[in-house]
Amino acid sequence: MTTLTTQTGIATTTAAPARLYGLVAEFENPAQIVAAAEKIRDKGYRYWDCHTPFPVHGLDKAMGIQRTILPVLVFVAGAAGCTTGLGLQLFTNSFNFTIWALVWVTGYPFLISGKPALSIPAFVPVMFELTILFSALSCVGLMFLMNGLPRLHNPLFTCDRFRRASDDRFFISIEARDPRFYRSKTEADLKSCGAAAVEAVVED
Amino acid sequence: MAHDHSNTPDLSAGNLTGSGLGAHARNFGLAAVLLIGIGAWTGFRSGDTEHFARAYVVAMMFALAICLGSMFFVIIQHLTRAGWSVVVRRPAEALMQNLRWMWILFLPIAWMGWTGRLFELFPWADLVEMAKVSPADAAIVKSSLRQDRTGDPAISSANRKLSGPAMILFGFSITFAAVDWMMSLSPVWFSTMFGVYFFAVCATCGYSSMALLCLRLQHNGKLKGIITPEHYQDLGKLLFAFGMVFWAYIAFSQFMLIWYGNLPEETAWYLSRQVGGWRWLSWALLFGHFLIPFVLLISRWPKRWPTTLAIACVWMLVFAFIDLVYLIMPHVPHDVGDFSRYSEFAAAHASDSPHLLDPTLLGLALGMLCLVISMTMRSLKGKSLLASRDPSLGESLAFQNM
Fold first, then answer.
1. Distance of CA B354 to the CA centre of its chain
2. Would you call A57 an interface residue with chain B, using a CB distance cutoff of 8 Å?
3. Bigger pLDDT: B390 or A151?
4. Global pTM value
5. CA nearest B9: which of B402, B401, B394?
């Protein structure tokens, strides 16, 4: 196996040879990576990503990334929060029927400052707060889930060259698990996109 | 940035100069004279001075809200050094410039007060209200136009400094205007939220009119490729945030505290808006000013697609007008103490009606709207429609929502 990265020494102390994680290709400016991303997208790769020091306009489109369905899910969660707030108050304060929620519980209509037991204006603040709470929590939670977070380590960090992704270089990484990944062919693909350098990264 | 520069915006004079707007100014001016004439004529014929005066206040506040809302937008853009909004600032400036002549609209009320004919309408305010905001407004617009010629970035910096005090003045003026011209119509009633309520009306009217003006200018073949769906999406967001969510938030806050406190001196104001036809108007506001447009404008594409945005803006202007009718027109009934039960009171007032289609009210309001459009077109005529040498213009042209 060819020399992979400077840090593979630790990995090769074990008996098995280090498994290939994928390839990273370095680009020097945003225009290059956008053009390269379009080519990689058209070649049909699935498990690949772009890494840039700052947001690059038009990169999502060049990569062929679909718009996220997160807003729709958050809307549903918000509506669920609103309904929960309303339902909770209707049950506890407006009616006195009994339901089973782990134990048998009964609503308890109680006269508060002469208002009717079913007073929507008094319920609105709780409905509003639960809408916000449900949507905010589900927004953050689902964002983490959909992004595969929390992920405390990524093999890409073993690559010294890759450190400049947070400074002044632009990278495309293609993972070895991609069905279209063949080491030599993928390397040629990346080079033909104008990569300044292509480097292999191993699992650690 | 690395996005596609193949469609560079057309910055030629033909795309930027407000030529051919003179016909608009004239047509809308004629419509304004006609409609205000109809409103005034039917108002005088009816002989009901108070109704006429209140309808006039609705129309005046409607026109004022459009211009104050635009002024708020311009000041806040300078204050926050916003880059995205440079391409839509000139139309907003044109709308806010109307504040320079709007004090004239107050003269009929001042005259009625002067001649002692205003025994039930209580305009405590005077011309000072309008005069206060005008100098700041004039300075910002003039310097913006001067920058078109000189390209001096120091002008932007000076406007930023000016916009801080201007915002404070704006806050005072809008609160005094709301309290003096609207809240004092029911002199014993009070709400500390009322100034904020009028601000919500201004923001609704301002953002709707700005987006409509930009759409109209583009429809006329101006600013092609300069104002993009990205800018419309942001105007839509602001309309959504201030016109629907913020309005619902403060209007409900005011209502809920008074409903919960249940003090007769406060609830009478709402009582008069819950009987007869006013009951349906209140419900219409809840659905028409908040729930329906909230669902319509919450997602991304309706804000980016001109047709849906235009529909939403016109819708919001209609409901801002209905909101002003709701705030200004009803009387707190004098017989409110004669009933022991709400149902008896409601039955006695079952025939109360908002008379939304009253020719005096509609004629005056539509007439004032046409007047604002006409004067806006006049001030845009022959001028540059783009702050073409603003230091942030490039940022605004390249702006994208992430």
1. 21
2. yes
3. A151
4. 0.84
5. B394
